[in-house]
């Protein structure tokens, strides 16, 4: 089976979800005013099948407009929690968190695979220009009661390019309908779209722009990943899937967009005009609240973790795996150390944690990351119970916690925006060492674990497993 087919084509992805029982087609009429949003939120919270709404109130069932919710939500099928994310990047549905992070990390060391321009594609089937365009005619949902507007873009991919044409950026950022032909969106200065917008502003020209929906799933995942500035997301997507993304030229500007996208909006981002936007429920679970796990966690937390793993390894730190538990809303990063290599470094807890903190917090994803949990390789960072156990048992308040005040944080973290004002203008970040001093010095630790896995001989474990149903369980 070609696992990358779904990663390269949104329609194929939807079909495979349906075939696997990961999708439910909702034919009953649903109201875009809050009902759609409430259904999708409940789907996330119960890890239910992704709903494909075919009958959205206010829009004839002409089959042209459908809404897919929770496209990269979690699954409650046993052993398949990450299947939608796995499928998005070309892995089998049973892939683990480790498999997913490893695949993204491996692509980082592959040569870039630039996109390939083609003459035309399905995206060119219907073209509306000028006054034919009316965004207010679309059944755009009001997703949460206290949102400042109707959000057309929640998983849309913005395409922009530096004025010299050297850097193309594909990124997810939200967008709210403002008028027939206007959207309001976030251009956060630290994000690449903000960096590029500033270049256009210096030049004194509005920024050519396209916003794409229903792009190849691998593209949307990378659109949510903090890869370094001045690197092209399309090239990395190609490296991840092993094939160039096929792109076509826009109708009204020279930007290139995926040929098999569902919808592309074209226009400019003004460099002179700003408008009020939001509020909108946020990844950190407050209104601003997108409570876990939605794509802000499945995609963003995971791709940040993969990027951090790459950054640590590039800095020669003996890090095996990084994961951000979805339940932490992208604010905890469990960093797993290779203990044998750590011991060989002849370092100590403070030196190592300070070095790790500087490497991660000063990096591009570091701006989003406030809390690192450093764990040994006897802890599975993708297992939240393991991480909690490590923190509870190994991390001494004060003495195993290394606080950094010199790096800034994304203001969306509730205690950054609404916490105590800080004199320096920055807030604390922490490396919590969930290991003991001996973890840094002893190849073999003097204590034994107390789990089923660790506390019994193989023969006894096998007997218990073989007889499990015979015991009456
Ligand atoms: C579902 C989802 C929604 C997101 N919404 C926003 C957003 O509205 N604004 C924003 O700046 N970043 C948002 N992000 C995070 C960015 O996509 C992410 O930081 C990415 O690295 C930005 O691209 P860049 O690295 O090219 O700047 C979102 C991510 C996901 C997965
Ligand atoms: Mn970028």
From TrEMBL:
It is found in: Cytoplasm. It comes from the Eukaryota. Binds 1 prenylated FMN per subunit. One of its GO terms (molecular function) is metal ion binding. Its EC number is 4.1.1.102. Its main location: cytoplasm. InterPro entries: FDC-like, UbiD, UbiD-like_C, UbiD-like_N, UbiD_Rift_dom. Residues 297-431 form the 3-octaprenyl-4-hydroxybenzoate carboxy-lyase-like C-terminal domain. Residues 118-289 form the 3-octaprenyl-4-hydroxybenzoate carboxy-lyase-like Rift-related domain. Mn(2+) binds at residues 169, 233. GO terms for biological process: cinnamic acid catabolic process; ferulate metabolic process. Gene3D superfamilies: 1.20.5.4570, UbiD C-terminal domain-like (3.40.1670.10). Keywords: Cytoplasm, Decarboxylase, Lyase, Manganese, Metal-binding. Its cofactor is prenylated FMN; Mn(2+). Prenylated FMN binds at residues 169-174, 191-192, 233, 364. The active site is at residue 282. The keyword RNA-binding does not apply. Residues 15-103 form the 3-octaprenyl-4-hydroxybenzoate carboxy-lyase-like N-terminal domain. GO terms for cellular component: cytoplasm. It catalyses: (E)-ferulate + H(+) = 2-methoxy-4-vinylphenol + CO2; (E)-4-coumarate + H(+) = 4-vinylphenol + CO2; (E)-cinnamate + H(+) = styrene + CO2. PANTHER family: 3-OCTAPRENYL-4-HYDROXYBENZOATE CARBOXY-LYASE-RELATED, FERULIC ACID DECARBOXYLASE 1. Homodimer. May form higher order oligomers. Belongs to the UbiD family. UbiD-like/FDC subfamily. Catalyzes the reversible decarboxylation of aromatic carboxylic acids like ferulic acid, p-coumaric acid or cinnamic acid, producing the corresponding vinyl derivatives 4-vinylphenol, 4-vinylguaiacol, and styrene, respectively, which play the role of aroma metabolites. This is Ferulic acid decarboxylase 1. The gene is FDC1.
